[in-house]
Amino acid sequence: MGGRSPLPLLAALWRDSRGNSIVEMSLILPVLVLLGCGSMDLGLAFLGQIRIQQAAARTMEMALSYRSPTVALSTTVIHDEGATAYGIPTADTAGQVTADLWLECSGVRQGSYTNSCTTGTPARYASVTITDTYSWLFESIVTTDVSPYNIPLKGYAEVRIQ
């Protein structure tokens, strides 16, 4: 055996620190990318919730100030305004926008919005509910099954008109 011992070469290789930062970066970079993408996705979901709530509030502001000489305030008017405020074509809402008008006499809900109270103080209310779902942008990283990664968004606003 006329060869040299590999121990000094291994010892020198062990002490050599060149390239450590590349190895460390290759280990931490995927984690940082996933954290960044997850933060962005969560921020977009939160932005969607704010947008849908603002659309519902805008719709109730319209209902509170609604004055038309030809068309009375109705659930159709509120529905269409809610769809427009959220940016959905009014014909394509598919149950995403729900409007309600009701009358309460002394705190008891009545059957018709247009009736008058025989006893007690009348109180007329309008409400709108707008629903949607947010789909995670980076769901394909986790799974190919989309359904459990949809987040329901809901905006609700109610106002007393009278």
Describe this structure in words.
The protein has 162 residues and is α+β, with helices and mostly antiparallel strands. It has one domain (19-160). It contains four helices and four strands, in the order αααβββαβ. It has helices spanning 7-15, 20-65, 75-86, 139-142; strands at residues 97-105, 108-109, 122-135, 150-160. The protein has a four-stranded antiparallel beta sheet with strand order 2-1-3-4, with helices on one face. Strand 1 (97-105) and strand 2 (108-109) form a beta hairpin. The longest helix has 46 residues, at 20-65. The radius of gyration is 30 Å and the shape is rod-shaped. It starts with 6 loop residues before the first helix and ends with a strand. 13% of the residues are buried.
Query: Could you tell me the radius of gyration in angstroms?
Result: 30 Å
Strand percentage lies at 15-25%
Q: What is the domain tally? A: 1
Mean pLDDT: 84
> What is the number of E strands?
4
The sequence of SSEs as H and E is HHHEEEHE
List keywords for this structure.
about 160 residues, alpha+beta, four-stranded antiparallel beta sheet, 4 strands
Lay out the secondary structure:
Layout lengths: L6 H9 L4 H46 L9 H12 L10 E9 L2 E2 L12 E14 L3 H4 L7 E11 L2
Antiparallel strand pairs: 1-2, 1-3, 3-4
